[in-house]
Specification:
There is one protein chain. The chain is an alpha+beta fold. The chain folds into two domains: 2-214; 225-361, Reverse transcriptase/Diguanylate cyclase domain (Alpha-Beta Plaits), CATH 3.30.70. 65% of the residues lie in helices and 9% in strands. Strands 4-5-3-6 form a four-stranded antiparallel β-sheet, sandwiched between helices. The protein has a two-stranded antiparallel ribbon with strand order 1-2. Residues 238-363 form the GGDEF domain. Keywords: Membrane, Transmembrane, Transmembrane helix. The chain crosses the membrane at residues 6-25, 37-57, 69-90, 102-126, 138-158, 170-187, 193-209.
Amino acid sequence: MDRYFCVLTIINLFVLSFMCILTKLSEALSKKQKQGFVCAFVLIAGISVLEVITLIVDGKPSSYRWLNIMSNYLGFGLSPAVALCLVYVLDKKTTFKREFKMMVYCELGYLIFLALSIPHGIVFSVDADNFYSRGQYFYIYVIIYFAAILYLSISTIIKAREFQNRSRKLIYPLIVFLTAETIIQVALPELRVTWLCVTLLSVLYFIYCNEMWNQLDGLTGLLNQNSYLNRTAEMRYSGGVLIVFDVNDFKIVNDDYGHLQGDICLAAIADCIKKAYACYGYCYRIGGDEFCVLLKNGEKEEECLYEFMNQLEERRKEITFLPIVSFGSSVFSGEDINVVKKLADRNMYQCKKEQKNRATLGL
């Protein structure tokens, strides 16, 4: 069993090393995301090695007792930190959110508690003859570990919803798999499959996150043009509504205020679109200053439009030069997407013309 486990660990380390190199070479990930993934992979590798060490030195002469204690301490102590590293990669922003800071402090507090508990054997103990055993309150580790998994799961689901990711339901089977595997490991500790399964799940999580980010427009966080083209093919017979948006005189904003301020305007408009429409459809950036929404329920169009206009007015209190946005819509009823898009564009240009006429008249 020891040799078999060592072979599995070597395979595990090879996979994790490969993932670290792949992450470092990725052009799609930000520096922050690379740091989070590499840290997670390195932690999993380190804990896997620590588990091998505990297996090798357990029951050996008492001179190895300190190594047995330290390996178990680091293994139990750092396990929840893997989930924190994966939460860290979810947001490209470099600032730390309050709840993430709180979880980091909880992890540090847990490490201190675990260190202080070693002489009393609360979570685990290594006797004078250098034999490891679980402590009376081993369930504290299990609770902390599950809390970290729960935090990662909730954070991922929230972020996937924010990014309008249709695959977010895939998170649930991953949670169930990891939970079942952990329960089996707790019940049958001799199996020693935890970190092999965690490696597998971390690779799947890496693939899932990359797929989610590849669907997004980098500037606005809306779904990108490829996502739009794929989705419109599915909605042809759905009876949904295509709504297109175009920013009026956006070139003037760039010329007068600079491209950086122009990008701020686009991001603000995209945020208004998402807040107004994302609950009832999918929001896309399909060009420079062109946006669209695939609305699943046409009855919500007027309600969403009203909310969108309110959101824009609120943003103009912060960004006084935020331009006017024209819009037009067309219903899917079996026609080719190009026909639907052409009609929506026609309605949008009519809206743009009316808005410019009102501006000319000072209305």
